[in-house]
Amino acid sequence: VIAAGGIFDRDDVERVFKLGASAVQVGTAFVATEECDADYRFKQAFVDARSEDVTIIKSPVGMPGRAIRNKFIEDVENGKRKPFKCAYQCIKTCNYKEAPYCIAEALLNACKGDLENGFAFCGSEVHRISGVTTVKKVIDRLFGERR
Prior knowledge:
6 helices
């Protein structure tokens, strides 16, 4: 069993191992690292996120996802359509003729730091990120010795 979701530090790892997991999958904690190739503004959105900023959205491909609330998401929730041309046709479940925005375009924009034309998916513990760090420090926080 590989545990995923809500894992940020050693206490979280130990908790899921006690429940029977034999491995963990961690994503959000590695976004705000120097080694991550996302734009600094994307990483900063993770650093600035508060727990109340995290929301569940329904993407145009029909799947829910946890994201950091921003103006882009609020505009979509208020019925504003973000015009686009479907350049990707990336997944069959996306009806691009009716979709309010292109998920691929929004995510690429955000990764490049353009959060006015995109948004950041994140994990539930994004609010625990306090600054940009290194992969080594994230690994140490997850598996290092107790201090």
